[in-house]
Design goal:
The chain is of the alpha+beta class and about 280 residues long. The chain has 3 domains: about 70 residues, SH3 type barrels, CATH 2.30.30; about 100 residues, no CATH class; about 100 residues, no CATH class. Helices cover about 55% and strands about 10% of the residues. It is built from 12 helices and 5 strands. Strands 4-3-2-1-5 form a 5-stranded antiparallel beta sheet. Strand 2 and strand 3 form a beta hairpin. Helix 2 crosses helix 3, helix 4 packs antiparallel against helix 5 and helix 7 runs parallel beside helix 9. The chain is elongated. The N and C termini lie far apart (about 60 Å). The N terminus is likely disordered.
């Protein structure tokens, strides 16, 4: 999906006459297609002289009819008859609920979250789209929901980019969500530990690696131990290494490097033994 950039609003507003395929039937959610081919689902609030007043991810702005190739209400779209497909009314409710996640007061956001949880399987595609929402609170809540209700096969890849989100709270939500979805995110977590600026977030990532209990994490954790400047994170790393290896070498990175070298040497010896045994049976 193409994300509408606010800097384009002024250009759209200055443009001219209407296209015959641009039909406004009242306030609601519409599929919009620009003349250059990009598509966007947004809320059209009303129309004026040669333009529409639109809402998208918390922003209201005018948009000229001239730059629009197609504007059609979701309710008028032809739907795939496949089982589980959303009706136009259902999609509108889901999009309204996603926007309500931005609310920080009252129970509106909680009600919206529970509604989306109930409809999770059917609204998964729209939730993935909402991971690019301009409101950090919405991104955080959608990440949380995907972590609680999703699975590694369908939801892990869409969540990975949120580990690099500009907002601290969203990145932490992504760490916690991916923890629940499983160790397919292992490599992404190694990179995350190198660049995450918040020490507490790094602690949660290290804790996740310990919980997944994958031997591939040992070497990257030893490397991180050598580079880590925060004492609290170093304690989490040594705890994770102890869990993963059953060894207790404290915060001595050189000792851990020695352990890794010996471990790799023993693995090579075992590999050679197995190879020789196979040769002997021939």
């Amino acid at each position: 999906m193409t994300i509408f950039h606010p800097s384009l609003i002024f250009i759209f507003f200055l443009a001219g006459p209407a296209d015959s395929k641009v039909k406004f039937t009242g306030p609601g959610w519409y599929l919009l297609e620009f003349k250059e081919g990009h598509r966007l689902t947004l809320k059209v609030l009303d129309q004026g002289d040669g333009s529409f007043r639109c809402y998208y991810q918390g922003a209201n702005f005018p948009m000229s009819r001239h730059e629009i190739k197609l504007l059609i209400r979701l309710a008028e779209l032809k739907r795939d008859a496949a089982a589980g497909s959303l009706t136009p009314l259902e999609e509108e409710k889901i999009r309204e609920a996603i926007e309500a996640l931005a609310s920080l007061e009252g129970g509106e956001a909680e009600e919206a979250f529970e509604f989306l949880r109930k409809e999770f399987t059917r609204c998964r595609k729209v939730l993935h789209e909402a991971l690019a929402h301009r409101e950090a609170q919405v991104r955080k809540q959608v990440v949380k929901l995907l972590g609680e209700e999703g699975n590694g096969d369908d939801d892990l890849q869409p969540l990975l980019p949120l580990l690099k989100d500009s907002e601290d709270r969203v990145r932490l939500a992504a760490v916690m969500a991916l923890r629940k979805l499983g160790p397919k995110a292992l490599e992404a977590f190694f990179e995350y530990l190198r660049f995450e600026p918040v020490a507490n977030h790094r602690k949660m990532a290290v804790k996740t690696l310990a919980r997944w209990h994958r031997p591939e994490a040992v070497a990257p954790l030893v490397e991180r131990l050598e580079e880590e400047s925060d004492a609290g994170v170093r304690k989490f790393i040594t705890g994770a290494l102890k869990t993963l290896t059953k060894q207790d070498l404290g915060e001595d990175a050189e000792a851990w490097k020695g352990y890794l070298e010996e471990f790799e040497r023993q693995k090579e010896i075992e590999r050679l033994k197995v190879s020789q045994e196979k040769e002997g049976k021939k």
